[in-house]
Write a structure and sequence with these properties.
Layout (H helix, E strand, L loop, with lengths): L3 H35 L1 E2 L4 E2 L1 H14 L1 H4 L6 H6 L22 H7 L14 H4 L5 H11 L10 H16 L2 E2 L12 E2 L5
Parallel strand pairs: 1-4, 2-3
Helix pairs in contact: 2-8, 7-8
Length: 191
């Protein structure tokens, strides 16, 4: 009987190991399922009025020149200038770098390339990012075009909240979004 005891103990240890593995796999699957259900459809976005206002102020100062006052894009932005300034490429040459030093600007008498500032005022304008945290990462890395990364993360967060409100008509309910909230905001609910 003593010879059987080591095999039985080993069997129980192996069985316990299998049981632990099954429980861990099940809990990982449950967490993944929960994270999918925790995602927020951007069309149901709720934000605070203060955060929206801060984002609007940042947008007005840094973004309207290229994206337009209402987010309708380059055509709207260009129309805000006098008629003799409609040819933006006169100074903002397409071959110019996206970022230029004051010395480069003075030497060439041109400024940074505008690129093609897209409209931001509809879900289709930003749904390609998939989630709000990806939109945040893109905006922080590339905007404003003449000096990417110049704002702090709080300003970029407020700006992204405002851009989301342009695209999805966010409801105001007093809740401040945090950067970690952005990964749960789904920008592709209709795909």
């Amino acid at each position: 009987m003593t010879a059987l005891a080591p095999r039985t103990a080993a069997w129980w240890i192996a069985a316990a190991g299998v049981l632990v593995a099954v429980v861990l796999a099940a809990s990982s699957a449950a967490e993944a399922e929960a994270s999918v259900h925790d995602r927020t459809d951007a069309s149901r976005l709720r934000v605070s009025e203060a955060q929206l206002e801060r984002g609007r102020e940042t947008y007005d100062f840094h973004c309207t020149t290229c994206h337009g006052a209402t987010g309708a894009g380059f055509a709207e932005a260009r129309a805000a200038f006098p008629a003799d300034h409609y040819d933006c490429w006169r100074c903002h040459g397409p071959g110019n770098p996206a970022v230029m030093t004051p010395r480069q600007i003075e030497a060439t008498q041109t400024v940074f390339s505008l690129g093609n500032a897209p409209a931001l005022d509809g879900a289709s304008a930003i749904d390609r990012f998939g989630s709000a945290d990806r939109l945040f990462a893109h905006v922080r890395a590339t905007m404003p075009r003449w000096s990417p990364g110049r704002l702090d993360d709080d300003a970029y967060l407020d700006l992204v909240v405002y851009v989301l409100s342009l695209a999805y008509d966010a409801q105001v309910d007093g809740r401040e979004l945090r950067i970690e909230d952005l990964e749960r905001i789904d920008l592709t609910p209709l795909r």
